[in-house]
Amino acid sequence: MAYSIDRDRLQQFNSLEFLARQVVEGFITGLHKSPFHGFSVEFAEHRLYNPGESVRFVDWKLYGRTDKLFVKRFEEETNLRCRIIIDRSSSMYFPPKDKADINDPNKVTFSVYAAAVLLNLMKKQRDAVGITTFTDSIDLHTASRSSAVHHKYLYTELEKLLDPKPAKEQLTTNITGSLHQIAEMLHKRSLVILFSDMLDDTHKLDEIFSALQHFKHYKHEVILFHVMDRNLEEFLDLDDRPYRFIDMETKETIKLNPVEVREKYTQAFSEVRKELEMRCGRYQIDYVQADINKGFEGILLPYLFKRERLH
Predict the structure, then answer these.
(1) Quick one: pLDDT at residue 307?
(2) Distance CA 257, CA 279 (A)
(3) Which of the residues 55, 212, 247, 292 has the least number of beta carbons within 10 Å of its own beta carbon?
(4) Count of CB atoms within 10 A of residue 245's CB?
């Protein structure tokens, strides 16, 4: 069975922009600051306005003379290279679903829709985008391109992730090794956007952040969407009765009543999450707590509005 992204759910994001906060490498007309033009803000030329983009740089005087919309392009404008990285280990298919449903998503469905929004914004801005997926190794690593054909291909790859079968395939994860490998594969300064539940050995935080710093070492901008079902994974919001808990990656099983462990479990989970957020702040990595119960709109819209205000 083929799964598809409901594109109507993405339309509300069309008027937004997604700009890099740091300089990016490139020469093609775009919306981002480049290190190759001396950081000049001098006017260079006009380009036609693309429907749906911000009107911030529309030349209204020229519009009054020509009745056509043109946007001012400045010397430092260039293209962004964006790398969207998605963890597709079995734990990302929690809670298990018989089919992909964005109205009741699991973690990977949430990530796919959020990634599709960002892909659409990059397409509108004519930015080069590539997608990488990983489990305990790299499963997919596409080139970064901006063509319509390439964007269609990326959509197809995103839609493949909606298939719920991996939930039963014991796909383990190696966050540290995979991120180190991806960092070495990116040869141009990029905006790196990672979607992951970050479920690994809690004693490996130093190793995980060593991998995230690997991207920063190569001057990439990094955004981490920490994807989780807070009700179930942090608060253990379950009825007062015995349950059989099964690790989706290893199939290890444990039987217990969640009420008996809820307080200590919630405290431990919260401490790990807060440590992740604190370290991201220390290393200038954007940390976005992405609770799937809020929906991808409820997470992305506030983040993108905040990002536009701070840019």
Answers:
(1) 83
(2) 33
(3) 55
(4) 12
Q: For residue range 115-167, list pLDDT tens digits in order.
A: 999 999 988 888 889 999 999 999 999 999 989 999 999 999 999 999 988 87
Assigned token pair, 217:
């070492």
- Of 124, 128, 117, nearest to 304 by C-alpha is 117
Segment 192-210 shows an average pLDDT of 88
User: 191 pairs with which residues across the strands?
Assistant: 82, 221
For 224-234, write each residue's pLDDT tens digit.
999 999 999 99
Q: Measured between alpha carbons, how far is 105 from 161 in angstroms, rounded to an integer?
A: 13
Q: Which domains does the chain have, with CATH numbers?
A: 41-74 (no CATH), 79-310 (3.40.50.410)
Checking 278-286 for CB contacts under 8 A at 24+ apart, the result is: 279/205, 279/209, 280/212, 280/224, 283/209, 283/212, 283/213, 283/216, 284/216, 285/212, 285/216, 285/222, 285/223, 285/224, 286/221, 286/222, 286/223, 286/224
